[in-house]
Design a protein that fits this description.
Layout (H helix, E strand, L loop, with lengths): L7 E6 L7 H14 L3 E5 L3 H6 L2 E4 L26 H13 L4 E6 L1 H12 L4 E5 L15 H22 L2 E6 L6 H10 L3 E3 L7 H13 L5 E6 L6 H13 L3
Parallel strand pairs: 1-2, 1-4, 4-5, 6-8, 7-8
Antiparallel strand pairs: 2-3
Helix pairs in contact: 5-6
Length: about 250
Protein backbone atom coordinates (compact mmCIF):
# COMPACT_ATOMS: atom_id res chain seq x y z
CA UNK A 1 0.00 0.00 0.00
CA UNK A 2 1.44 3.37 -1.04
CA UNK A 3 0.95 6.60 0.86
CA UNK A 4 -1.39 9.10 -0.78
CA UNK A 5 0.29 12.28 -2.01
CA UNK A 6 -1.71 15.38 -1.12
CA UNK A 7 -1.38 18.13 -3.72
CA UNK A 8 -4.37 20.22 -2.68
CA UNK A 9 -6.37 20.29 0.53
CA UNK A 10 -9.41 22.21 1.71
CA UNK A 11 -9.94 24.02 4.99
CA UNK A 12 -13.29 25.00 6.49
CA UNK A 13 -14.79 26.26 9.72
CA UNK A 14 -18.20 24.99 10.71
CA UNK A 15 -20.77 25.34 13.50
CA UNK A 16 -20.51 28.10 16.08
CA UNK A 17 -17.50 30.36 15.69
CA UNK A 18 -14.85 30.21 18.39
CA UNK A 19 -11.99 32.56 19.29
CA UNK A 20 -8.84 31.22 17.67
CA UNK A 21 -10.43 29.80 14.53
CA UNK A 22 -8.66 32.37 12.36
CA UNK A 23 -5.34 31.47 13.95
CA UNK A 24 -6.04 27.82 13.11
CA UNK A 25 -6.91 28.66 9.49
CA UNK A 26 -3.70 30.67 9.21
CA UNK A 27 -1.63 27.80 10.60
CA UNK A 28 -3.19 25.30 8.20
CA UNK A 29 -2.65 27.50 5.14
CA UNK A 30 0.92 28.49 5.93
CA UNK A 31 1.98 24.99 6.97
CA UNK A 32 0.54 23.48 3.79
CA UNK A 33 1.98 26.15 1.48
CA UNK A 34 5.40 25.68 3.12
CA UNK A 35 5.20 22.00 2.16
CA UNK A 36 4.16 22.81 -1.42
CA UNK A 37 0.50 21.89 -0.95
CA UNK A 38 -2.28 24.14 -2.30
CA UNK A 39 -5.11 25.13 0.03
CA UNK A 40 -8.71 25.79 -0.95
CA UNK A 41 -10.59 27.96 1.51
CA UNK A 42 -14.15 26.64 1.74
CA UNK A 43 -16.67 29.32 2.73
CA UNK A 44 -19.56 28.87 5.18
CA UNK A 45 -18.54 25.39 6.27
CA UNK A 46 -20.19 22.40 4.61
CA UNK A 47 -22.59 24.71 2.83
CA UNK A 48 -19.63 25.95 0.77
CA UNK A 49 -18.81 22.38 -0.21
CA UNK A 50 -22.33 21.87 -1.53
CA UNK A 51 -22.53 25.25 -3.28
CA UNK A 52 -18.94 25.07 -4.57
CA UNK A 53 -18.09 28.32 -2.77
CA UNK A 54 -14.32 28.12 -2.39
CA UNK A 55 -11.07 29.69 -3.57
CA UNK A 56 -7.34 29.08 -3.45
CA UNK A 57 -5.65 30.75 -0.49
CA UNK A 58 -2.11 32.07 -0.38
CA UNK A 59 0.00 32.90 2.66
CA UNK A 60 -0.87 36.57 2.09
CA UNK A 61 -4.59 35.80 2.25
CA UNK A 62 -4.22 34.85 5.90
CA UNK A 63 -1.99 37.75 6.95
CA UNK A 64 -3.08 39.83 9.96
CA UNK A 65 -5.97 37.55 10.99
CA UNK A 66 -4.31 35.80 13.93
CA UNK A 67 -5.81 38.18 16.50
CA UNK A 68 -9.25 38.57 14.89
CA UNK A 69 -12.34 36.89 16.34
CA UNK A 70 -14.86 34.98 14.29
CA UNK A 71 -13.72 33.26 11.12
CA UNK A 72 -12.69 34.75 7.78
CA UNK A 73 -14.10 31.63 6.10
CA UNK A 74 -17.48 32.27 7.74
CA UNK A 75 -19.63 29.50 9.15
CA UNK A 76 -23.02 27.95 8.64
CA UNK A 77 -25.04 25.04 9.98
CA UNK A 78 -26.02 23.23 6.78
CA UNK A 79 -28.96 20.82 7.10
CA UNK A 80 -28.66 19.74 3.47
CA UNK A 81 -25.19 18.35 4.16
CA UNK A 82 -26.78 15.88 6.60
CA UNK A 83 -28.74 14.24 3.77
CA UNK A 84 -27.25 11.54 1.49
CA UNK A 85 -27.91 13.77 -1.53
CA UNK A 86 -26.17 16.79 -0.03
CA UNK A 87 -23.23 14.71 1.12
CA UNK A 88 -22.81 13.26 -2.36
CA UNK A 89 -22.80 16.74 -3.93
CA UNK A 90 -20.09 17.79 -1.46
CA UNK A 91 -17.95 14.79 -2.37
CA UNK A 92 -18.38 15.47 -6.10
CA UNK A 93 -17.35 19.12 -5.66
CA UNK A 94 -14.24 18.02 -3.77
CA UNK A 95 -13.26 15.80 -6.67
CA UNK A 96 -14.06 18.48 -9.28
CA UNK A 97 -11.78 20.91 -7.46
CA UNK A 98 -8.98 18.39 -6.99
CA UNK A 99 -9.27 18.42 -3.19
CA UNK A 100 -7.43 15.41 -1.77
CA UNK A 101 -8.47 15.99 1.84
CA UNK A 102 -9.99 18.58 4.18
CA UNK A 103 -9.03 20.12 7.50
CA UNK A 104 -12.32 20.69 9.36
CA UNK A 105 -12.25 23.17 12.23
CA UNK A 106 -15.25 23.02 14.57
CA UNK A 107 -17.16 21.10 17.20
CA UNK A 108 -18.95 17.77 17.44
CA UNK A 109 -21.27 18.43 14.49
CA UNK A 110 -18.29 19.39 12.35
CA UNK A 111 -16.52 16.18 13.34
CA UNK A 112 -19.56 14.08 12.43
CA UNK A 113 -19.53 15.69 8.98
CA UNK A 114 -15.81 15.04 8.65
CA UNK A 115 -16.41 11.38 9.52
CA UNK A 116 -19.07 11.11 6.79
CA UNK A 117 -16.74 12.65 4.20
CA UNK A 118 -13.89 10.33 5.20
CA UNK A 119 -16.19 7.35 4.85
CA UNK A 120 -16.94 8.41 1.26
CA UNK A 121 -13.30 8.77 0.27
CA UNK A 122 -12.44 12.37 1.19
CA UNK A 123 -10.03 12.00 4.15
CA UNK A 124 -10.48 14.66 6.82
CA UNK A 125 -8.57 15.93 9.82
CA UNK A 126 -10.55 17.53 12.63
CA UNK A 127 -9.21 20.47 14.62
CA UNK A 128 -11.38 20.93 17.74
CA UNK A 129 -12.71 24.49 17.69
CA UNK A 130 -15.55 25.10 20.14
CA UNK A 131 -15.92 27.06 23.36
CA UNK A 132 -17.95 24.17 24.81
CA UNK A 133 -14.88 21.91 25.21
CA UNK A 134 -17.17 18.95 24.43
CA UNK A 135 -14.88 17.05 22.04
CA UNK A 136 -13.50 13.74 23.28
CA UNK A 137 -9.81 12.78 23.08
CA UNK A 138 -8.58 16.33 23.69
CA UNK A 139 -8.10 18.26 26.94
CA UNK A 140 -8.85 21.70 25.50
CA UNK A 141 -10.56 22.98 22.40
CA UNK A 142 -9.81 26.19 20.47
CA UNK A 143 -11.85 29.01 22.00
CA UNK A 144 -12.47 27.39 25.38
CA UNK A 145 -9.77 29.25 27.28
CA UNK A 146 -10.83 32.59 25.79
CA UNK A 147 -14.46 31.92 26.71
CA UNK A 148 -13.48 31.17 30.31
CA UNK A 149 -11.38 34.30 30.63
CA UNK A 150 -14.20 36.42 29.19
CA UNK A 151 -16.63 35.06 31.77
CA UNK A 152 -14.15 35.55 34.61
CA UNK A 153 -13.52 39.17 33.60
CA UNK A 154 -17.25 39.94 33.48
CA UNK A 155 -18.01 38.20 36.78
CA UNK A 156 -15.20 40.06 38.54
CA UNK A 157 -16.90 43.30 37.50
CA UNK A 158 -20.31 42.07 38.64
CA UNK A 159 -18.95 41.19 42.06
CA UNK A 160 -17.91 44.79 42.72
CA UNK A 161 -21.50 45.94 42.23
CA UNK A 162 -22.86 42.98 44.23
CA UNK A 163 -20.66 43.95 47.17
CA UNK A 164 -21.64 47.62 46.95
CA UNK A 165 -25.37 46.91 46.85
CA UNK A 166 -25.63 43.68 48.87
CA UNK A 167 -26.88 41.62 45.92
CA UNK A 168 -26.74 38.21 44.30
CA UNK A 169 -26.04 37.76 40.59
CA UNK A 170 -26.97 34.54 38.82
CA UNK A 171 -24.80 34.37 35.71
CA UNK A 172 -25.79 32.07 32.86
CA UNK A 173 -22.85 30.98 30.73
CA UNK A 174 -22.60 29.22 27.38
CA UNK A 175 -21.38 25.68 26.79
CA UNK A 176 -24.50 24.09 25.33
CA UNK A 177 -24.97 20.74 27.10
CA UNK A 178 -21.48 20.70 28.62
CA UNK A 179 -20.79 22.30 31.99
CA UNK A 180 -17.05 22.90 31.62
CA UNK A 181 -17.22 26.70 31.34
CA UNK A 182 -19.58 26.93 34.32
CA UNK A 183 -17.51 24.66 36.57
CA UNK A 184 -14.09 26.15 35.89
CA UNK A 185 -15.35 29.75 35.97
CA UNK A 186 -17.24 29.03 39.17
CA UNK A 187 -14.04 27.85 40.79
CA UNK A 188 -11.98 30.73 39.42
CA UNK A 189 -14.46 33.42 40.53
CA UNK A 190 -15.27 31.93 43.91
CA UNK A 191 -18.95 31.45 43.10
CA UNK A 192 -21.16 30.31 45.95
CA UNK A 193 -22.74 27.71 43.68
CA UNK A 194 -22.47 26.22 40.21
CA UNK A 195 -25.41 24.60 38.41
CA UNK A 196 -24.65 22.19 35.57
CA UNK A 197 -26.69 19.55 33.79
CA UNK A 198 -24.26 16.73 34.61
CA UNK A 199 -24.70 16.93 38.41
CA UNK A 200 -28.00 17.31 40.36
CA UNK A 201 -28.32 20.80 41.83
CA UNK A 202 -29.24 20.81 45.54
CA UNK A 203 -31.32 23.95 45.73
CA UNK A 204 -32.21 23.54 49.43
CA UNK A 205 -28.60 23.20 50.52
CA UNK A 206 -27.69 26.21 48.39
CA UNK A 207 -30.42 28.45 49.86
CA UNK A 208 -29.50 27.34 53.38
CA UNK A 209 -25.84 28.20 52.76
CA UNK A 210 -26.75 31.65 51.45
CA UNK A 211 -28.83 32.37 54.53
CA UNK A 212 -26.03 31.29 56.88
CA UNK A 213 -23.41 33.36 55.04
CA UNK A 214 -25.70 36.40 55.10
CA UNK A 215 -25.86 36.17 58.90
CA UNK A 216 -22.05 36.08 58.95
CA UNK A 217 -21.94 39.37 57.04
CA UNK A 218 -21.35 38.28 53.45
CA UNK A 219 -22.66 40.94 51.04
CA UNK A 220 -22.00 39.54 47.56
CA UNK A 221 -23.10 36.27 46.01
CA UNK A 222 -22.25 34.90 42.57
CA UNK A 223 -24.00 31.85 41.13
CA UNK A 224 -22.86 30.36 37.81
CA UNK A 225 -25.43 28.39 35.79
CA UNK A 226 -24.76 26.48 32.59
CA UNK A 227 -27.15 27.07 29.70
CA UNK A 228 -27.57 23.28 29.65
CA UNK A 229 -29.80 23.61 32.73
CA UNK A 230 -32.64 24.71 30.45
CA UNK A 231 -34.34 27.88 29.26
CA UNK A 232 -36.19 28.79 32.47
CA UNK A 233 -33.75 27.59 35.13
CA UNK A 234 -31.83 30.83 35.63
CA UNK A 235 -34.92 33.07 35.72
CA UNK A 236 -36.72 30.78 38.17
CA UNK A 237 -33.66 30.50 40.42
CA UNK A 238 -33.26 34.29 40.67
CA UNK A 239 -36.91 34.64 41.72
CA UNK A 240 -36.60 31.89 44.32
CA UNK A 241 -33.41 33.34 45.80
CA UNK A 242 -35.03 36.74 46.27
CA UNK A 243 -38.23 35.26 47.67
CA UNK A 244 -36.57 32.95 50.20
CA UNK A 245 -33.52 34.98 51.27
CA UNK A 246 -34.63 38.58 50.78
CA UNK A 247 -31.45 39.23 48.80
CA UNK A 248 -31.99 41.22 45.63
Amino acid sequence: MTNKVFKRIGVLTSGGDAPGMNAAVRAVVRSAVFKGIEVMGIYEGYKGLIENDMKLLSSRDVSNIINHGGTILFSNRCDKFKTPEGLQIAVENCRKNGIDGIVCIGGDGTFRGATDLSRLGIPCIGIPGTIDNDISATDYTIGYDTAKNTVIEMVDRLRDTCESHDRCNVVEVMGRNAGYIAVECGIATGAIAVAIKEIPFDKEEFIDRMQKLTKLGKRNFIVIASEGMGADFTENLTKEIEKRTGIE
